[in-house]
Design goal:
This protein is α/β, with parallel strands linked by helices and 359 residues long. The protein is built from 17 helices and six strands. The chain is globular, with a radius of gyration of 19 Å.
Amino acid sequence: MAETGGRIRAGVAAGLAALALLAPLPAAPATAAPATDAPNAPAAAEAASVAKPGAAAPARADCPPEPAPLGREDVLAGMRDAVDSGFLWRAVKDGRTVYLYGTIHIAQREWMFPGPRVLAALRESPDVALELDPTDPQIVARLQRAIGRKSGAPELPPTLKARLVAQEGTACVEPALLAGLRPEMQAVTLEVMSGRRLGLQPAYGVDIFLAQLARQMHKTLHSIETPEAQAALLVSDDPRKTARNVEEVLEELESGNGPRILGRLAKAWRHGDLEGLSSYAQWCECLKTPEQRADFAKLVDERNPVMAERIVALHAKGKSLFVAVGSLHLVGPIGLPSLLRARGFEVERVDLETASSAL
């Protein structure tokens, strides 16, 4: 069997899976609370997740616990005790700032709360941009159409279908949760959900919390990609390609490599380990073949110039901007900091008191 790009796809799919699983998201309240009180509404995203019927099937004794709804006091305590995680850059041009914040799409509960410096950057920015705005019902609806199973689409080969069903049981996922998704999204969603055994929950995705918080703080939110473009990275109308992609992800799940890589990426993010993140290609064991490298280029590298152009266009409208995207988009010679520097921005990394430096 070939080495696969499944673990790369899982990183891209995490945000899509979180949106698909949590949708429809509740609307943010019409009035924002004071700055220290602002996060009471984002807990609605978590509550929606656990309230959704059939989200998991805890038939196995070793199933991970479901994420608990967060009350007002839980969120206020989380914000009070938050430590900065991830990676933050400041890019300045024409007297206006673009903050580039590298996120993780699935996280442990305490990780989703922004620490002091990330929160300060968010407060300073009137506009907020994400890969996709999860608080926009139209974005969510378009995403669901893009990743939804097409009527009359061919079934997976029986052996692949049986392996997929087996992984549903291993991941403690109710089949009804995946039934409406295209086969590739079923597989990558299972890989994302495998992170729950490490405490990594789609319900605690950093992007979703930041979006809800920004909405409540009366920020203007933007999507710098489209649901259709993101979905096209993962799904295909070619039955042979669909089967191949599903098999790749299943191999990752069956070998245990997928969850292991998710865990290592999450650790690098939590501790602000830029060297560890930048050396992903050396330790992920997923870029050995020309096909794998082409997958990575499509899923990460080729998206960065498009994101950069959108960020530059938003910045040109005359406001400072807080941008939150998956952390792999911020590293290397074609990461967003480098691309903005090439477009005339003065770029520097912001030191964060991360979980590791706070110990």
